[in-house]
Amino acid sequence: MKGFSDILPPETGRWRVLEERAREVLGGFGFSEIRVPVLERTELFSRSIGEETDIVEKEMYTFTDRSGELITLRPEATASVARAYIEHKMYAFDPMAKLYAIGPMFRHEKPQMGRYRQFHQIDVEVFGISHPMIDAEVMAILMYYLSIVGAKGCALQINSLGCPRCRLPYKEDLQAFLRGHFSQLCPDCQRRMEKNPLRGFDCKVQGCQEVMSKAPLVEGYLCQDCAEHFARVRAFLETIEVPYSVNPRMVRGLDYYTKTTFEVVAEGLGAQDAVAAGGRYDHLIEDLGGGNIPGTGFAIGMERLLLTLPEAPPSRGPSLFIAALGEEAQREAFNLSYRLNLAGVTTMVDYEGRSLKAQMRRANKFGALYALIIGEDELRKGKVILRDMKERRQQEIPLPSVFEEVISWVGGGSSY
Ligand code: ATP
Ligand code: MG
């Protein structure tokens, strides 16, 4: 299906590295993993992300199941994690929770480089802390993670969208401005102007971009509390020396954000250059029926991150190819191979009873480092041959010590 991909070896190795580093870094910062379902009731997303957003308007995989329930494949994880936090009363002991989730998300978008219909995110959420320090902390974690996995040319952009109190007069002024330029706007922006005028900043149509370049900015409308919060977030970023720039036109495509929002853009990704994005959402938990509990978090797009990283090295072959001739030798090969695998040595045996020449061809084809040859004659003498495929030297080994001898030549530990 378009926009859905198989991830094959050795590519899967790159994914595992990203996931393992994420677990290490987040674990170090006191985060715990949460796993939430890929399906949720549709209303969870329409209520949290917002009816007038791209995601809810046109990107969700929504259908009725066999019991007539309207359900959606999750387009993002924040809403699901927030639902779980509320449903399991995770705030009962203490409102603070630091959680992360890794997994697939689904959006019916036009597939292109960096944009897929099933994609994967590392999603990080902190509930229960309204202090600006945590906004700076999650951004620092994000930038640190990107640096240790080797992402190059990543730039952090931040903005503040204010709270509903200061956004209301801003929205009114923005709407008044847009009404004055109505005929220059695309049909989408015209339609969304009344309910979600901020979306204009994200519109890619040139006419809209020209209008928006003259539009009033939210920074001029921040109430004292929001302005102070934003100033402190910036000061905390400076304290721990995390470089950033303020982008007053970044509005983000989801309705639940309040105050701090941020995005990380990377070089060389073309039009889809945001590898990660997030922000504060102080009313989401309450809107979903939980208490008055603030939140802040981000999601990293794993496919986009991988596009910025070097390609996977080719997979290594087996450590040892075991060539066996005849029924008795095959039984010996089977037994030895099993015991070596348990010891972490990757082996390959020939199951087809091919000729020695054909078996050695396979050993070369798969790039085996060593080969063990168990021939009928040698077996009768209680011997096998161990060959170093690269050095092209070989040695006869007495059968009883072959296991130890192989371990000492090849070493333990898997190469897959
Ligand atoms: P975009 O600007 O690309 O539309 P977005 O604002 O919709 O992204 P978010 O919902 O904030 O993205 O998701 C966070 C991250 O997830 C993005 O920065 C991006 O890296 C990744 N992402 C979002 N949509 C896709 C997609 N369709 N395919 C691949 N990655 C995606
Ligand atoms: Mg999008």
Would you mind describing this structure in some detail?
The protein has helices at residues 11-28, 42-49, 54-59, 78-87, 132-148, 164-180, 187-192, 206-212, 224-239, 284-287, 302-307, 327-342, 356-365, 376-380, 402-410; strands at 32-33, 39-41, 61-64, 70-73, 97-106, 118-127, 154-160, 245-246, 258-266, 274-280, 295-301, 320-324, 347-349, 370-374, 383-388, 393-398. With 416 residues, it is an alpha+beta fold. The chain has 2 domains: 11-163 and 223-307, Bira Bifunctional Protein, Domain 2 (BirA Bifunctional Protein, domain 2, 2-Layer Sandwich); 320-406, Rossmann fold (3-Layer(aba) Sandwich). An 8-stranded mixed sheet has the order 1-5-6-11-10-9-7-8, sandwiched between helices. Strands 13-12-14-15-16 form a 5-stranded mixed sheet, sandwiched between helices. A 3-stranded antiparallel sheet has the order 2-4-3. A hairpin with a 4-residue loop joins strand 15 (383-388) and strand 16 (393-398). Helix 1 runs antiparallel to helix 5 (132-148). The longest helix is centred in the N-terminal third of the chain and has 18 residues, at 11-28. The chain starts with 10 loop residues before the first helix and ends in a 6-residue tail after the last helix. The mean pLDDT is 94. Magnesium ion binds at residues 54, 253.
